Amino acid sequence: MKFVLSSLVLNTPNALTGESFTTQQKYQNVLKQAELAETLGFDAYGVGERHAAPFLASSPPVLLTAIAARTSRIRLLTTVTVLSVLDPVRVAEDYATLDHLSGGRLELIIGKGNDARHYPLFGITVEEQWDSMAERYELLKRLWSEEEVTWEGRYRSPLDKVTTQPRPYQKKIPVWHGSASSTLSTELAAKHGEPIFSSNTIHRQSKYKALIEHYRERLAFYGHDPSQAVIGAGSGGSIYLARTKEEAIKKFRPYYDAFSGRLKAPHDQSPFRDLEDNIENGPILVGSPESVIEKILSYHSVYGNQVLSVSVDGLTVSEQREQAEWFSREVAPVLRREIPNRIWERKGETVASDTSQVSAG
To answer: Which domains does the chain have, with CATH numbers?
Structure first.
C-alpha cells in the first residue's frame, strides 16, 4: 500500500489549547508538513481546494509549487481540484507549469468538491455541477493532449485553434476522479479508464463500497479490465495513534467533538452516534497501531484500494509531527508488506505515476 499525507489547510483554533495560526503561520505549517512527509517516506502529499473559511486552500497550484521547491521525491496531489467551477484553460496552464516546476511529480484528483459555497462564487448552480464537471474535463483532456484546439461548449467561451502553454512535462499528467457521493463521478472515471479516489470520510462503508463496485462494473462496460482498477481511499479525515486504543480515544475526543460541531450542511451530517461508533463502524483511524492496521486491512478487503490518504490537520504542531512519525514507523511498514503494489514505482525507483490509465481488457 502507498500513503498520502494530505491537508485541506483547515485553520481553526486548536480544540485543546485554543491557539490559532495566522494565515502566514498556517501556510508555513503546511509547507513543513510536506517536508516532513517526504522525510518520513510518505509517497505523496496532497492539498485540497476550498473557497471559504475556515479553509485557506483556495490556490492549490500555488501552494503545491511552494512544496515542490522544498521537496524532491514525493508525489504532489490535488485532493481535490474543484474542476466543476474552474476554467479548463487556466487549469491546464497552472498545473502544466506546476508539473514542470516539480519535475513531473504532479497528479490531479478532480471532483465537484464538498462545499456548495463555491458555486455562486464562480457562476455555477448546484444543479449544473455534474454537467459542468464532465464538459470541463473533456476540454482539459484535449488541452493537455492536443494543439490548436477548437471547441465550443456551455460553460466557457469558445476556443479557436488554441494551444495552451506550457505543454505538460509528463507525457500524460495522471488524473484521478474524486468519488464521494454519486455514481456520476465513478461513471466519468470509468468512461475514461482512470483511477478513482474514494473520500471514505463521512458515510458508512456500504455507501463507498457501492460506488467502488459501480466503478468496476462500468470499467468493464467501457472495455477496461476491472481487475486492474486503481483505487485510493481516505480515512475518515483523521488519524490518531496512541499506545492503547483507550488512550487514543481519550486524547482525540476533543478534536472529534470540535470537528463534528462544525458540520452544518445536511450532506455532512455523520451517521455515527459518537466517536466510539465511528471507530467501530466508520472510516476514522483512531487507536493503537495494531488496531489501526487491522482496520485498514479490513477496509482494503472491501475496497481493494492500493493507496490510503491520512491527515493530521487540526492537531497541535507537536501532535502533527508525532502522529505522522508514529504512522510512518508503526503502521506504514506493515501495510506495505501486506499490500504490495507498483503504483508510483518502477524497478525500485520513484517515477511518473503508472495510474493514469486502467489497463484495457
So the answer is: 2-350 (3.20.20.30)
CB 226 within 8 A of CB 220: yes
Are the CB atoms for 139 and 90 separated by under 8 Å?
no
What does residue 274 show for φ and ψ, rounded to 5 degrees? -165, -175
Best CA proximity match to 236, nearest among 223, 252, 250, 222: 252
d(CA 157, CA 152): 7
Q: What are the residues whose beta carbons fall under 8 Å from the beta carbon of 8, sequence distance 6 or more?
A: 47, 48, 50, 55, 57, 79, 311, 313
Q: Closest by alpha carbon to 202, among 122, 294, 134, 115? A: 115
Which of 126, 359, 86, 306 has its CA nearest to residue 95? Answer: 86
pTM of the model as a whole = 0.94
Of 224, 228, 211, which Cα lies nearest the Cα of 177? 211
Q: Write out the chain's pLDDT in tens, 361 residues.
A: 999 999 999 999 999 899 999 999 999 999 999 999 999 999 999 999 999 999 999 999 999 999 999 999 999 999 999 999 999 999 999 999 999 999 999 999 999 988 889 999 999 999 999 999 999 999 999 999 999 999 999 999 999 999 999 999 999 999 999 999 999 999 999 999 999 999 999 899 999 999 999 999 999 999 999 999 999 999 988 899 999 999 999 999 999 998 887 666 555 678 999 999 999 999 999 999 999 999 999 999 999 999 999 999 999 999 999 999 999 999 999 999 999 999 998 544 444 445 655 643 3
Contact between 69 and 34 under an 8 Å Cβ cutoff? The reply is no
DSSP 147-170: SSEEE--SSS--EEEE--SSPPSS
